[in-house]
Design goal:
By secondary structure, the protein is α/β, with parallel strands linked by helices. It has 9 helices and 9 strands. Strand 1, helix 1 and strand 2 form a beta-alpha-beta unit. It comes from Vreelandella neptunia. Belongs to the short-chain dehydrogenases/reductases (SDR) family.
Length: 258
Amino acid sequence: MTARLAGKHILVTGAATGIGRAIAEACVREGAKVALLDREGDSVERLAAQLRGEGHHAQGLVADIAERAAVEAAVAQARKLSGPLTTLVNNAGMNVFHEPLAMPDEAWQRCLSVDLEGAWHCSRAVLPDMLEQGGGAIINIASTHSFSIIPGCFPYPVAKHGLIGLTRALGIEYASRGVRVNAIAPGYIATPAVEAHWQIFDDPAAAKARIEALLPPGRLGQPEEVAMTAVFLASDEARFINASCLTIDGGRSVVYHD
């Protein structure tokens, strides 16, 4: 590692597992102070303790990002312990897949409150730090569902399309004040949630193989591959990248299928 993020104080949401964990680990190893936020308090504190044991600066925070007051309290705690935030990675989210007319109202509300409003709650909480410092970076973990639709996955793509809109709107709103806002759109990544998904099929191995066959590299992506893209966007190397979305899906979204 090359200390590309030295001097950065980064808040990563959904940091206890999967892509969020990989981002948190990559950021501390690149020299950042990292605040790890998750609903799962025990899991996120274990990870923070592990990173501190490796000599890194990490703290665990607990909040449901759907609750604005909880987010603001967690950000205040991070600020008190480690100073103003310079960077936010809005990674926390949840899959909510339904046929639209069969969807319970609660499913719509929960999906939008976490996958879209949650990112806004976190952004609103950290933006004052960034504006006061004259700059900062927000990275929203979107999805290939942000621009492609799979039947039966409603309302998840609605929220993820909205997240791209939030990325662009905030990026343009605050560009002149030094704040960059970008998104990453992962495709199939080998996270615990995706691995658990195969288990709903009668033949999990065959289900996974069918998906891998659709991906041009013939494999799923790894969380670390998303994490290092986040490191780049958080670093000063990306200082002229704003209101953009980088897709990490091995090229799947540009392939035309009959």
